[in-house]
Amino acid sequence: MQIRTRSGGHDFEGLSYVSKISPFVVTDLRNLSSISVDVVRKSAWVQAGATLGELYYKIAEKSGNLGFPAGVCHTVGVGGHFSGGGHGFLSRKYGLAADNIVDARLIDAEGRILNRKSMGEDLFWAIRGGGAASFGIVVAWKLQLVDVPSIVSVFDVNRNIEHDATKKLLHRWQRNADKVDEDLTIFVVLRTVISSTDEKGNKRIGLEASFQATFHGGVDRLLQLMQEKFPELGLLRQDCIEMSWVQSFLFFNGFRNGEPLKVLLNRTPDSKLLSFKAKSDYVKEPIPHDALHGMLKRLRQEDVGRGWVELFPYGGKMNEISESAIPFPHRAGNLYKILYYVEWDEEENITASKKHITWVRKLYNYMTPYVSNNPRATYLNYRDLDLGVNNNEEDSKSNYTQASNWGPKYFKNNLKRLISVKTIVDPTNFFTHEQSIPLLLKH
């Protein structure tokens, strides 16, 4: 029977608790969630079942000037997030979560509990960005914490995309978001909204761009930078809020009414559970005006508020780390990452569900000429089974062939080393799933 390893929460294709190809058992780590922070050494041990919210809360308990460069959503589990890379508002300054892992506790196929020294550098390399579930069960990670200022500034402003200033802003953002001060990260969400309703109840659908940012410093310097680099946004002082680093996670998780920090400890999202499908891309050259217009036109084809496109900038520290430093290869040359996302009510019938999935697949196909190619890169933590699956756990040749489809998209040239490590540390393919790293073919 296959082993499915479930950590603290979130899995885009559900591979931590379902299987399409074999009977399976779930190793559920959610109760392994203790966190120990060492302020003097600027380090922390966090068990794999903890969430990002729990981690940030525990760090803030010990220090207001330490943080960790991981994701924004507080209910994401650290186990899978770290093992697939893990980026967020600190990544342009400090790299990924996986770049700042300094040790781990892993149970291998033989049942041994290994640390960095006993597992060796090849396996330690593989589990930081290569998807640890292909190699064993990570039960804890040791993190190198990073410095954060006492005050950060945030904003979240919406602009009508149909206005010329917003169109100019989107193009300027494409050219400059990866090049601005590494203390500033501006994240963009494109979506449809109901802009107005007439007397007869007819609704006018508009397009909106949400600009969300964290700046590691005060509002005065932030306003100066924004006026220099993105004057079209027209950012005002009243749009910005100064707060502590940990409070910024309350802000971006929608807690904006004075909620206590303890809400970060809630493991379950407050919103209604929805079905969803996501895909991702990397952009190396600014998307031309006509193509951007075509993407926005396709946003209108999905039900209002059900589909959106997120643009997350890279640059800074991400450009300085080698593609082969860890398995995550999407470094210098990438302006930003795109996430295409659609969600729908679980109660909708199969026909409606297929409609939503077809929409996001068509949008992804439309974007083909404007994103990275050879390979068309994608982010492992936004796992996508459309790219191919390992169909037969007994047929290593078939699995190896399938991995040649999805593997280079996630890992580029790092796939070969991942296959080599897998073959050495798990030669019986004990840890396997629909997109697990295959064994090296025997000739």
Automatic annotation (TrEMBL):
GO function terms (MF aspect): FAD binding; oxidoreductase activity
Organism of this sequence: Ficus carica (Common fig)
Cofactor(s) listed: FAD
PROSITE patterns attached to this UniProt entry: FAD_PCMH (PS51387)
Alphabetized UniProt keyword annotations: FAD, Flavoprotein, Glycoprotein, Signal
Family affiliation: Belongs to the oxygen-dependent FAD-linked oxidoreductase family.
Top-level taxonomic group: Eukaryota
Stated name of the protein: FAD-binding PCMH-type domain-containing protein
InterPro entries registered for this protein in UniProt: BBE, FAD-bd_PCMH, FAD-bd_PCMH-like_sf, FAD-bd_PCMH_sub1, FAD-bd_PCMH_sub2, Oxid_FAD_bind_N
PANTHER family named among the record's database cross-references: OS08G0158400 PROTEIN (PTHR32448)
Residue stretches making up the FAD-binding PCMH-type domain: 1-148
